[in-house]
Amino acid sequence: MTIKKMLLLGLCVPAIALGVSACGSDDDDSSSSTGTTTAMEDTGTTDAMAAEKDIVATAQATPDLSTLVKAVGAAGLVETLQGDGPYTVFAPTNEAFEALPPAELARLLKPANKAELADILTYHVVEGDVKAADLTDGQKVDTVEGGQLTVSIDGDTVKINGAKVVTPDVATSNGTVHVIDAVLLPQQ
Fold it and tell me: Once rounded to an integer, what is the mean pLDDT over residues 160-173?
């Protein structure tokens, strides 16, 4: 089942990283977090070790993706991004979210804006396991949200809709994460 179909079914899942339900109930005790880990760029682990964690666990283990983790929980996408995949996620850093207009992130995280937030986040997701080496200059990539991303490559610099890939090819058990320096917004 695709992410978009799961969203349309009104999937309510616990926001594991936040310890609260993405559906507004705080009494779901099925969400838990285990252990403390460090940022993926600081661990020095091999790709095989990193690939033992799914996309959500990888993001949870990366302090610079904590805002993304919070947003994924608020949008009800935790369980979906823990699914089999494979998925490729272009993951904005905390600094990328801070660059949004003032109060925009707070607005998007409100339960009333869950569908809009889900659209924005699924615009960062591509079905399949896409590595940096698979991308070509000028390539158009279809997103789960239904839009397209444009790849630009200049030497060693890869950009997705103008957002620079700052950490490419982070292996997970259900796909690949490319950390980017901006939040991508679907065309209105």
Answer: 97
What DSSP string describes 104-118?
A: HHHHHTSGGGHHHHH
Q: What is the pLDDT of residues 135-148, one digit of tens each?
A: 999 999 999 999 99
54 backbone φψ class: left, alpha, beta (φ>0; ψ -120 to 50): beta
DSSP state of 101: P
Angle between helices 66-74 and 114-122 (to 10 degrees): 130
Residues 6+ apart with CB under 8 A from 58: 40, 50, 170, 172, 177
The SS3 call for residue 85 is coil
User: Which of 47, 144, 138 shows the shortest CA–CA distance to 89?
Assistant: 144
Rounded CA-CA distance 14/167 in Å is 28
> Does the N-terminal peptide bond of residue 86 adopt cis geometry, omega within 30 degrees of 0?
yes
